[in-house]
Amino acid sequence: MTLTTGLLLCLAIIAAVYAVILANSFIRTDRSAPEDASVAPPRAATVTGFITNFFDTLGIGSFATTTSIFRQWRMVPDELIPGTLNVGHALPAIAQAFIFIRIVPVDARTLALMIAAAIAGAWLGAGVVSHWPRRRVQLGMGFALLGAAIVMTMTTVGLVPGGGSALALNGPRLIAGVAGNFLLGALMTLGIGLYAPCMILVSLLGLNPTSAFPIMMGSCAFLMPVASMRFIRARKYSPRVAMGLLAGGIPAVLIAAFVVKSLPLTAVRYLVVIVVLYTSLNLIRAARRERRSALSLEPGPVL
């Protein structure tokens, strides 16, 4: 059995285990008290999942766009956004990984090590973020999205090297790739998304840019279920919205990968940058408002 086949087998096992855990989580939620009415209805979440995962499969990424939609239409409380993103987009990401790992060539060892690094980063990151208070989540997502907007702009205007023709990393470049993907895995738990930064990383390391697709999709497919389990255990996500993202996401992945395959996406990328920048600034402002509100409620000094 080849290493690539082993990766796909492990991914299938993870998908099956995660699906069972997710189903049990949804069942427990249905039997408990009704979910907060502040979250979006399943239909709106399903449409969101379809749109964001369609463009995700074409390389735009889904976390930044979904966060922008959540914030614009107040679909999920801010403190639940990171967990809902990871939980709801995990199975669509696994579907993408199965497709692209099979059809896009890349060195199996490079792929496996970078995926393992992303998983480790996500596990540590989710353990931290799942216990953060609302204001810290707002600040973390705000600055993470600001970074994502900068990265997206760099890729769109061509400020990043176009990459090389290599399909494998060795020596210091492999170490740099593993370290970089570890950091990107940790940032995924804040909702920054891995696609655009990973594309820059592999290009700077001299890999063929198309090899970014199995690396970034494989990384997300493995790390998102791992991170999601910690959010599920801490109950820091919206089950109803996550189910909607899942229901809309998988059909969108199949349509984008097998029917549409590619689109001229430059204008879409610019629009995403503008929306993400707006959302990041909104989150940072919301965190500042909450801090001022908290300070105003603190008792004054006793005279």
Number of helical elements: 11
Q: Which descriptor suits the 3D outline?
A: globular
What order do the helices and strands follow? HHHHHHHHHHH
Largest sheet: none
Care to give the gist of this entry?
This protein has 303 residues and is an all-alpha fold. Helices cover 76% and strands 0% of the residues. The chain is globular and about 60 Å long.
Would you kindly provide a written description of the structure presented here, covering whatever features stand out?
- The protein is mainly alpha-helical and 303 residues long.
- The chain has one domain.
- Helix content is 76%, strand content 0%.
- It has helices spanning 3-31, 42-57, 63-72, 81-103, 108-129, 134-157, 171-188, 195-204, 212-234, 239-260, 266-297.
- Helix 6 runs antiparallel to helix 11.
- The chain is globular, with a radius of gyration of 19 Å.
- The N and C termini lie far apart (77 Å).
- The relative contact order is 0.21.
- The mean pLDDT is 87.
Keywords summarizing the entry:
0% strand; 303 residues; 11 helices; mainly alpha
